[in-house]
């Protein structure tokens, strides 16, 4: 019986661990199949790209990614090379000889993993035959007009063909294939129907029907057990896609999903409880200088301030040093992403700040791509006016400096009344007059095509947040992805996030939530919900998430109005923080990045792989009933320093952002950081269930 090496693992905190099995990777081949390999569509691309280095480091030349071929992506992201592995080389050659176009190379990302790419178009002539194969395998038919589903069938058929060729020449090596989402699922279905000797894993990052139902503003989570699944899928004309997804789930040896909340959803939507929850991580890079991320925050905040100076020219009657930058970003799904509740909370926050006569101003950015004609002329003019004023100020400064220098050389104190001549005063007056505007600063940076029906703009009109002088909350909709080449806001997304103070993502449907995770890794506090995978993960791992800059809104067990009030209080409490408290909170937030590192979260995938081997090849791999990596007794503790939550011990009205609180003096960052470091478990360890605590099938807690 082939077994992995047995390891005795001890945690960093010195607590004993259960013995675990280490995979004999030298005797295995690992394939990950996804439509988003080298092809950025959504979040799965981020999962695979960021995980590649950790997986490649562990598996070496036995790790391969399978995806679709697109010429542009191939030219810009992939370096072609010849396969070293004989089984892979034979499979590629065989398929190419039969008229398929299969490309092999290294994906030029961190870790440089091998990729196998299939040209879908070159094999489309087999579509009718492959439709018949799918019907024979699981009685699922695909309509002619659904081009996406037809492409996925071609992709899956090519994948199954390739895996058959590999297993025919694997020389005793066992094959593990992990399929991501329904787009790759047909490859799994056909592989199992043809009884290929491979261990299969199917991972759903979000159920197909769940997305559709939540987009329709249905009370999804309170009616999970009441939906007529077939009827709902049929009414939305996705029944065949749903059947492909469900068949993939039930054909797989091991079924995984990315969060506990999605596991609950999948059990009801797909009728199988996930075997393992595999949380999504990121490739975390630590700076050599401990507080470098704080310096980057200051640098990029200054660039956002420059944009705000231009956008609000003529109405810049608020102090930018007492201004907080908040943002929400992602796909334009108004309800799913929580933009509806966020806008309502901003209206209530504006009322609270005005009622308490706060000198804090909040500028909120909505980075959500929508259909536009072009940049808003008034917005472009604002940036031009700002640049003109900057140039005038520098010109006058140079003349002033030269006259001052000459006077000092003569040993004189210059007459300040004469150091600026009449022309200089005239130029400055003209500059001041140019900043006057008759209209309010625009709430959007672009001309929207559907201005009258746009959900965000319609809500802004209803709640009356028009960037008036009296408003303490200002709103800017930027309906385009950020780019460093933009003439308006020339910043990449990462730079923009680092420059903001708070990311707000009160999503109703968010299987994982990469946006708040990215904020955490960059040391920026964020708002999430207990309906997002990220929020549930943090609730489980952090004793006091708020103290670490993770504000979790309850959108599952209370009414929408109560959730909105809770979000409003989170935002109001954040506005009351002093500068020092925000710095303390950012330090704590950044320390949570270790929790989201693939070097820590990769062990969940390792568990799923060993479990699928034990089910696919029970005579060669043995695995006693185990749980996924245990988190028992593991939580980031509540910080012992004062205040336990930066907003928890403040006065009832906002204070100046540069006020220092004496009560923060007991904060000892080095002690906190060391304690948090010791509470992280060592990477790549699995927990075995103690005797007497047998788990039922699928009964796992991550």
TrEMBL record:
Its EC number is 2.4.1.11. SUPFAM superfamilies: UDP-Glycosyltransferase/glycogen phosphorylase. GO terms for biological process: glycogen biosynthetic process. Residues 658-673 have a biased composition (Acidic residues). The lineage of its organism: Eukaryota, Metazoa, Chordata, Craniata, Vertebrata. Belongs to the glycosyltransferase 3 family. It catalyses: [(1->4)-alpha-D-glucosyl](n) + UDP-alpha-D-glucose = [(1->4)-alpha-D-glucosyl](n+1) + UDP + H(+). This is Glycogen [starch] synthase. Residues 620-702 are annotated as: Disordered. GO terms for cellular component: cytoplasm.
